[in-house]
Amino acid sequence: MGFEMTEVIVAKIGRAHGIRGDFFIDLRTDEPELRFKVGEKLKIQGEKIFREVTANRKQGNRLVLHLQGIDDRNLSEALTGKLLFAEVGDESPADPEEFYDRQLIGLQLLASEGENLGEITEVWHAPAQDILVAGEIAVPFVSELVERIDLGSKSAVLTDKGSQVVGR
């Protein structure tokens, strides 16, 4: 069994901050201390190369990042709205009740009686809990609403209560 690397979305670039190429990021990972530490490599959407994180800091409740080669405000402004990718291994979390975003994105969200509600396209990391997003549906990822995740059949099945919450 080989060890493969996969590119995963870890952030969306927000507005520029200052004149030296720094920018705010909107997190798409629950491991920011790992993904954005100085020395880590990230790839900007549309680029072929990975750039090194050269600085990071908290600004209020948001994270400000500086990447190698993005050294003025004009460059950082041009990146607003682009995604940042990190390269990760294909391992799964040690706890069988935990999942990486990349494992959940692409699953079919199913109502308790089997109705397909759409494909999970995003996982929002809210302060209280993660939220699965499929089209116009956003479901808190808690056991009371999500009965099971079946990676084999590529599905996330809602409980009866979860189905009622989304109006199905």
UniProtKB/TrEMBL annotation:
It is found in: Cytoplasm. Keywords: Chaperone, Cytoplasm, Ribosome biogenesis, rRNA processing. GO terms for biological process: ribosomal small subunit biogenesis; rRNA processing. Its main location: cytoplasm. GO terms for molecular function: ribosome binding. Residues 10-87 form the RimM N-terminal domain. It holds the Pfam family RimM. One of its GO terms (cellular component) is cytoplasm. InterPro entries: PRC_barrel-like_sf, PRC_RimM, RimM, RimM_N, RimM_N_sf, Transl_B-barrel_sf. Residues 103-155 form the Ribosome maturation factor RimM PRC barrel domain. The keyword Cytoplasm applies. Binds ribosomal protein uS19. The PRC barrel domain binds ribosomal protein uS19. An accessory protein needed during the final step in the assembly of 30S ribosomal subunit, possibly for assembly of the head region. Essential for efficient processing of 16S rRNA. May be needed both before and after RbfA during the maturation of 16S rRNA. It has affinity for free ribosomal 30S subunits but not for 70S ribosomes. Belongs to the RimM family. NCBIfam families: 16S_RimM. This is Ribosome maturation factor RimM. The gene is rimM.
